[in-house]
Each structure stands twice: as C-alpha cells, then as structure tokens.
Amino acid sequence: MVHKHGKIKSGERVLIHAGAGGVGHLAIQIAKLAGAYVITTASQKHHAFLTDLGVDEIIDYRNTPFIDVVTDIDLVIDLVGGDVGLQSLKALKPTGRIVTVPTITRDTILAKASKENIEATGMLAENNKADLEALAELIAEKKITLKVSASFPLAEARDAHDLLETKRTQGKIVLTT
To answer: Does residue 128 lie in a domain region?
Structure first.
C-alpha cells in the first residue's frame, strides 16, 4: 500500500488515518523507514503507542477535525473511508495522492478525486508472497514491530470480529488454529 500504490518518497508528508489499527501501525512504520514525515489520526488513548512507533504528529480526531490542521500532504493512506476519505482530498497538495482501502466508499472517493484531478487508488488486501516475506524480514530484523492486540482460537472468530468492531484495539487481532 505505502510503496506500490502510494509511491512514497523520502521527505514526503504522509497522513495515515486510523494509525493505531492493524494496518495503520504497520503503514506508519513503513512510511517512517521510507523517510517520510508521518501524521496520523487516533484517539488520545493511542497517542503513547503511536509516539513509540515514531509518528511525527498525532491528531486526536475526537477533539480536532484533521482537516482544520493538516495541509500540504503528499500522500494520504485512508483506512477509514466515508467522509474522512472525502475530506482527505482537501488536505492534499495539487500533486498529492490518496490510497483508500475501505471498499464500501472507495468508488465515491475515487470519483471525487478524479473530478479534482487527484491521483487516487482503491485497493484490497493483496496476498503477495514477496511482500509478506519482506514484511516478515523487517519484523525479524526489528526494523518494525507487529503489535498483537489479542489472539483468539479460530472457533471464536465471531468474538474476534466483535472486538475488531469496537475500534478500540491497537495492532492486529490474530486467529489461531
């Protein structure tokens, strides 16, 4: 997402929504390794975790609308969608890019971006062996950390999903066999 679709470059300003989540916390670390200045949105309870990941700025979306304080963004990683994805277009530089992940609002965001001549990509998770191996290597070399919020046996997948829906976790939720 960060490299292939986002085309990140060193020195760029990157806004990552939902930075404390399973995808967000990894995207932050990958963007930092690429030399980006990283801004993220998260509630106050996640700020210490995100600071430890190396985030440069954190916006508590519950108290401050990100669109009121963020400008000149080169790349947005939209892990929220809806109004957040649409508003993110306003934070981009004229040459900025957005990668939006949530499928339910992807087409709306891509259409608006197209009308405004903004480079936009919608994506789903991609099972790519080379990418997974590279991610595993970064973790093994302790260049990035994988935070596991909770682990559930496969038989309790519904409970895992219920926890995910609370949006109160940090990092990944793991199912085990």
So the answer is: no
For position 18, which CATH number holds?
3.40.50.720
3-class DSSP assignment, residue 52 = helix
Tally of domains in the chain:
2
Q: What are phi and psi of 133, to 5 degrees?
A: -65, -40
Q: Rg of the chain over CA atoms, in angstroms?
A: 16
Asked whether residue 89 falls in the same domain as residue 167, the answer is no
Neighbours of 65 (CB within 10 A): 13
C-alpha 99/C-alpha 109 separation (Å) is 10
Q: What is the pLDDT of residues 23-56, one digit of tens each?
A: 999 999 999 999 999 999 999 999 999 999 999 9
Residue 148: beta bridge partners? Answer: 172
Q: Is the pTM of this model over 0.90?
A: yes
Which domain does 172 fall in, by range? 147-177
